Amino acid sequence: MSYSAYCILNIRKCIITKFSLSFPKNGYAKKDSGSISMIGGTLKKKKLSKLGPITEKKLLPVEEDPNKLVSYVCGTNIYKTGEDVILKENSEYPDWLWSIRLGPPPTLEELDPDSKEYWRKIRKMGMRRNNQMAKFKKL
């Protein structure tokens, strides 16, 4: 079986064009330099960062009325209508509420060695130490 040079070149050209990638050369897909948002009736330009456009933070109003701060739990109403939860007398709340530890967690010396909290803290400290040592380990 013999092929002519013209036939071989045609076959080669078909194979190359079949597997080559072609990209559109139109200019309709341009990179956006920034996006525009409509907030409060005015247009504001957003800046692009590495992770995408930065959105403006929504500022919430701060309650300054001292009577409302003393009698209501401000910020508990998540609905557009309604009001915040009213505070009750201390006697209406359970006793364990007043014995909750508000400061930093207890140290290892303050914990009882026979408790679960003690051994969980030991395990957590060991895992943290192993992770720190793994950072310095050579590959």
Separation, N- and C-terminal Cα atoms: 58 Å
Strand arrangement within the widest β-sheet reads: 1-2
Task: Determine the structural class based on helices, strands and strand pairing.
Answer: alpha+beta
Please indicate the percent range of residues in DSSP E strands (runs of 2 or more): 5-15%
Biggest sheet layout: 2 strands, antiparallel
Number of helices: 3
The helix/strand order is: HEEEEHEEH
- Rough shape? flat
C-alpha Rg, in Å?
A: 34 Å
Low-pLDDT regions = none
- According to DSSP, the number of beta strands is 6
- Average predicted local confidence, pLDDT: 77
Helix content: 25-40%
Summarize the structure.
The chain has 139 residues and is α+β, with helices and mostly antiparallel strands.
Structure description:
This protein is of the alpha+beta class. It has a domain at 66-99. It has helices spanning 5-19, 66-71, 116-136; strands at 35-39, 42-46, 48-49, 52-53, 72-73, 85-86. The strands form 3 sheets. A two-stranded antiparallel sheet has the order 1-2. Strand 3 and strand 4 (52-53) form a beta hairpin.
Task: Indicate the topology.
Layout: H1 5-19, E1 35-39, E2 42-46, E3 48-49, E4 52-53, H2 66-71, E5 72-73, E6 85-86, H3 116-136
Antiparallel strand pairs: 1-2, 3-4, 5-6
